[in-house]
Amino acid sequence: MAKVKKAFFCKNCGHESAKWLGCCPSCGEWNTFVEEIVSKPATSALGINNSNSKALLINDIDISHESRLNLNSVEINRILGGGLVCGSMILVGGEPGIGKSTLSLQIALKCPDIKTLYVSGEESAQQIKIRAARLGSNDAQCYILSETLLETIIMQAKELKPDILVIDSIQTLYTERIDSSAGSISQIRDCAMQLLKFAKETNTPVFVIGHITKDGTIAGPKVLEHIVDVVLQFEGDSNHAYRILRATKNRFGSTAEIGIFEMQNTGLREIENPSEILISQHNDLSFSGVAIAATMDGVRPLFIETQSLVSTAAYGVPQRSTTGIDVRRLNMLLAVLEKRAGFRLAMKDVFFNITGGLRISDTAADMAIISSVLSSNFDVPIPVSSCFCAEVGLTGELRPVSHINQRIGEAARLNFKKIFISRYSKLEDKPPVNIEVISVAKIEELMKILFGKN
Ligand code: TYD
Ligand code: MG
């Protein structure tokens, strides 16, 4: 019988302590320690059996049998680095209702020649069937198990021998080895360890869904993120249809890849050309206050539409409101416009919006943001065939951004006629012939070109 002991754990990072502490020495959070009963798992149960392990010369290691399962989805295969690696453990995190269950069920249903076991601790088999019917499944080899006891799940999985195991969600599982309730730190940690052992022993890839906390991090101990091979974050505004799947950790591929999906009545649809959807089709009809930004997310160019509305402040204090960017970034850009371009905004309300419900943090959108603000202020439209990519510095200069050739290439592919970039950008290749590249050094220069104002 393993020795039962009690310990205190930090709810935020999983730090273990023998006594209660007010402030966690590991993550610095206050009042996060809870007492839990733990039975220390035997060390051999923690990982792969390594009794016969031996050091190998790196050149002698054989990787020819490293197999990847091809999931019937271009986007997910790409995010995973070219398919699902056998024996890997993938953690999928995201806000409630964002579509984690839909995504994983869809992965299971869309691969007719792959046997999957979908374990749900949240929904009954009937509820999953209703969801599957919406997703339009027919000949999938997908087995459903509604269960929360980990030992039963692993027993069933060993019997069924699926090619993929999906666990929805790790917070609902519990193991008999530990006395604390499901969702507690020691339960999550122990269940994850046992699932990892199952994955490595049977060479089965395991998808694990994890809830996230208020501040957007995956609930449960940080060790969960350390032990898994891949962490995927599913993001987006649940009021909008667009979702971004992003790898924040990937032992088998790049974390710069993203996948874009649209939530529809019949589940998630992959979007191959996001820029074509995010830019609204005006059919050559321009409106003032609209500018297209050539941003990048990871290694993927993402062309987005920025919209501004500048109006006279009705009350003494002007309003500044943004969706899709940090309001502080807008305030900074407005201050630069005021100081460097002599542009009076103190008595103006400024509302800013990025269409499609996306959030961007690429500073290459700065030039598009100021252009849309100026356009709305002068009420002069910017031609829809122009796009912008440069960062704005506090001195009012337009600064170069990374991947400039890729952005220009994408702009040409999307049939833009002009792209405004920083004069200091270094072009590695010659830009395509069907696009005019306009280099600008300062905001004043940009105003002159766009609106003919000094
Ligand atoms: P769900 O996968 O249950 O979210 P999570 O597991 O991340 O909590 O997704 C729920 C949302 O997706 C729900 O609000 C309804 C919507 N949805 C659709 O719009 N179309 C569909 O076909 C499905 C299955 C769900
Ligand atoms: Mg769910």
In short:
The protein is an alpha/beta fold and 454 residues long. Helix content is 26%, strand content 27%. The chain has three domains: 1-40; 68-272, Rossmann fold (3-Layer(aba) Sandwich), CATH 3.40.50; 277-451, Ribosomal Protein S5, domain 2, CATH 3.30.230.10.
What does this structure look like?
- The protein is α/β, with parallel strands linked by helices and 454 residues long.
- It folds into 3 domains: 1-40; 68-272, Rossmann fold, CATH 3.40.50; 277-451, Ribosomal Protein S5, domain 2.
- 26% of the residues lie in helices and 27% in strands.
- The chain has helices spanning 43-46, 74-79, 100-109, 125-135, 150-160, 185-202, 223-227, 274-278, 327-340, 366-378, 404-413, 443-451, and strands at 4-10, 16-17, 33-39, 68-69, 84-85, 89-94, 116-120, 142-146, 164-168, 206-211, 230-235, 242-250, 258-264, 267-270, 290-297, 300-312, 320-323, 348-354, 386-389, 391-392, 398-399, 418-422, 436-440.
- The strands form 5 sheets. Strands 8-7-9-10-6-11-12-13-14 form a 9-stranded mixed sheet, sandwiched between helices. Strands 17-18-16-15-19-22-23 form a 7-stranded mixed sheet.
- α10 (366-378) packs across α12.
- The longest helix has 18 residues, at 185-202.
- The N and C termini lie far apart (83 Å).
- The mean pLDDT is 86.
- The site of magnesium ion (MG) has 4 residues, from α3.
